[in-house]
Amino acid sequence: MEAAFVNPGPDYLSACEKPLPSLYFYFCLANLAALVAWVAALCTKTGTKVHKLHFMMAALLVLKVGTLLSESIRYRAISETGSGEAWSYVYYTLSGLKGVMLFVVILLIGTGCVFVARACAAAALVVHALRQTPAHARPALFSPGTRS
Q1: pLDDT-flagged residues of the chain (< 70)
Q2: Which of 13, 25, 27, 146 gives a 20 to 30 Å CA spacing to 33?
Q3: Burial call 119-134: b when 16+ CB within 10 Å, e when fewer
C-alpha cells in the first residue's frame, strides 16, 4: 500500500503558512522605511551630538531588514520548490549577527559607556601622561612615597 500526500497546486506551504512570504516582506518594507527615517534623522542633525551608538542602531536595523527579507525569500522558495535550505543558512547567519549586535547595543546603553567614553578617554590620557613622565618631574601629589 502506498500513499502520496500532495498539496493542491504547485504550493508546498501549508494553509497556515501561505501568507508568511508576503507578511515577512511587508514587515521588511516597514523596517526599511524606519531605517530610512533613522538615517535621515542622523544625517540632518547639525547642531547636536550624534553618538556612534546611533550608527550601531542603524546597522542593527540593516540586519533586521536583511533577516526579514531572507525569511520572506526562504518561504517563497519553499512555496515554489519545496526546499529553501540555502536561504535558511542566510537567515540563520543574519539572525545570529542581529542577536549579537542587539546584545552589544543594549550592553553599551546599560553601562553608559557611550556617554562617559569621553571622560574615560580623557582620564586615561592623563594617567598615561603621568606614567610617561620621569619620577622627578611628577607633581608631589602623584609621587610615590609622599603622604598628605
Answers
A1: 6-8, 114-148
A2: 13
A3: eeeeeeeeeeeeeeee
What distance in Å separates the CA atoms of residue 114 and residue 22, rounded to the nearest whole number?
38
- The 10s digit of each residue's pLDDT in 58-74 is 999 999 999 999 999 99
What is d(CA 4, CA 71) in angstroms, rounded to the nearest whole number?
28
Using CA atoms of 87, 90, 91, 97 in order, give the dihedral in degrees to the nearest 10. 180
Contact 98, 31 (CB under 8 A): no
Helix/strand/coil for 12:
coil
**Full-model pTM:** 0.71
Measure the CA–CA gap between 53 and 109, rounded to whole angstroms.
8
Place of cell 546597522: 59
The residue behind cell 531605517 is: 35
- Residue whose cell numbers read 519545496: 82
Residue whose C-alpha cell reads 546584545 in the numeric block: 103
Spatial separation of the C-alpha atoms in residues 141 and 130, rounded to whole Å: 11
Q: Rounded to an integer, what distance in angstroms lies between the CA atom of residue 57 and that of residue 114?
A: 13
